[in-house]
Amino acid sequence: MQFAKASLALSLVAASGLSGLSAMSPATSEASTRCTAGTYLGRYTLKSNLTNQYIRAGIGSGAYLGAKSDRVGGNTSWETFDVYDLGNHNGLNGGTYALRSTQDPNRWVGVNNQKALQLQRGCTTNSRSRLFRANKIGRVLQLQSLANGQWVIQRSNGMLHANANTTGGNVPKALQFRMGRVSSPSPTPAPEPSANNLTGTWRGNNAGSYTIRQTGSIVSWNGRGRNFRNVFIGQRQGNTVSGYWQDTAGSQTQNAGRLTFKIVNGSELVRVSHTGALGNSSWSR
Fewer CB near the terminus (10 Å): N or C of the chain? Predict the structure, then answer.
């Protein structure tokens, strides 16, 4: 899901009377990022809630996945996976994940043409068959293939397929997998937020993730959430930013207006005034 057209951002630039600015543009379909460049979340096991067996990768000559193991072979084994968060890379929504085999780190969990899960070589943000969305309640995980929109289910023979239409209502145990942490990512110190530059990722108080870029006094963003996509471009004066925003979702293209917000301690943006149906009233780093 990507922003509609570069011309939209150009029209916002013209409307705000700002010149000499490179307009925001969506990630092209050719743009891609290696999955290892995503945020590493740690090493995990997955255990079937239906049969209480661990998910094993590399089964048979096709390197398929199934709930076939009674125990974990070790930190690096066919039952452990490195999990990467690819959300907000190249137009992907937040909550998009890739799972890499620790036993064969050149291969990633993917969905083949028969909808079976198997290890596949390489992974980028364009490798939709290797990417999954997730529902997570506590330690219980449900995975949805980004390639076909189907949910991962354990079939009667224990093998995994992405061919369940929905997880609505009472979710069958065949679609539930318990996560077990094997190891955590090495902690790295978070950079100190700068009050002088807003560039970075921000979260709306109501919903959505916002990638903000500040170049000189010009501030722009790409905002995206479950039910919206919007762009903003404006000019900063001191701790106040004023400009124009517009929703780019297909059904919301007429939703647009002005927006002014103030910067509080360099770590929070608070809406001062606006026009149009803008859902968030504040944003934080």
Answer: N
26 or 147, which is more confident? 147
Which of 156, 177, 25, 5 has its CA nearest to residue 97? 177
Which tens digits make up the pLDDT trace of 170-214? 568 999 999 999 987 764 444 444 457 898 889 888 888 999 999
Alpha-carbon span 217 to 181, nearest angstrom: 44
- Which neighbouring-strand residues pair with 137? 140
From residue 57, how far is each of 136, 176, 216, 217, 276 by CA, in Å? 21, 17, 50, 51, 50
pLDDT digits (tens, 9 = 90+) for 161-175: 999 987 555 568 999
Q: Is the dihedral of CA 187, 203, 285, 22 positive or negative?
A: positive
Cα 60 to Cα 220: distance, rounded to the nearest angstrom = 51
In angstroms, what CA-CA distances link 125 with 24, 28, 77, 224?
Answer: 20, 12, 25, 17
